[in-house]
Amino acid sequence: MENLVDIGLNLTYFLLGVSILAAVVMPLINAIGDPKSILKFAGAIVVLAVVFGISYSVAGNEVLATYTKAGVGATGSQVVGGMLNMTYVLTFVAVVGMVYTEFHKIIK
């Protein structure tokens, strides 16, 4: 069973790497034809970095006994908390954007 979990985790890491590479490389390839699009791409990266910075600073760094067993320290706990907070914020923004878009379509 553990081998299956290891295979699943390694596959997940591989696919995550491929998706990150595609998310970074594809806009750069498309930017060759439109250099102004690099500013939009850089702006999106800056916004994500700011959201993560705020989420990281708000996250707690408490370490429970189960965290210690897994080898997670205070910094790791805070990074995970920051990522979770960032996920919550971005999900909220996406839902609000979808609701706004639908109401805007109805009003028009």
How many distinct helices?
A: 4
Total count of strands: 0
- What helical percentage do the residues reach? over 70%
Termini gap: 55 Å
In total, the number of domains comes to 1
Low-confidence stretches: none
Compute the CA-based radius of gyration: 19 Å
User: What oligomerization state is this entry in?
Assistant: single chain
Keywords: Membrane, Transmembrane, Transmembrane helix
Describe the structure.
The chain has 108 residues and is an all-alpha fold. It has one domain. The protein has 4 helices and no strands. Helix 2 packs across helix 4 (74-107). The longest helix is centred in the C-terminal third of the chain and has 34 residues, at 74-107. The protein is extended. The model has no long low-confidence stretch (mean pLDDT 89). The chain crosses the membrane at residues 12-29, 41-59, 79-100. Keywords: Membrane, Transmembrane, Transmembrane helix.
Short note summarizing the structure:
It contains four helices and no strands. With 108 residues, the chain is mainly α.
Give structural attributes.
membrane; mainly alpha; 108 residues; 4 helices; transmembrane helix; transmembrane; extended
